[in-house]
Amino acid sequence: DFLRQQIFIVHPVLFPLWLAGLVWLLLARRGRYRMLGWTYLVFYALLFALKGKNYYLAPIYPMLFAAGSVALESGVQRLRGRGRLVAQAACVTLVLAAGAVTAPLALPLLDPEDYVAYEKTLGISPPKTEVGHRGPLPQPFGDQFGWEELAAEVARIYNALPPEERARTGIFANNYGEAGAINLFGPRFGLPPAVSAHQTHFLWGPGESRGDVFIVLQGDREDLEHVCASVEEAAVHSHPWGMAEENNPIYVCRGLKTSLAELWPRLKHWN
Question: For 100-209, where are the E strands, in sequence order?
Answer without folding.
Answer: 169-173, 194-196
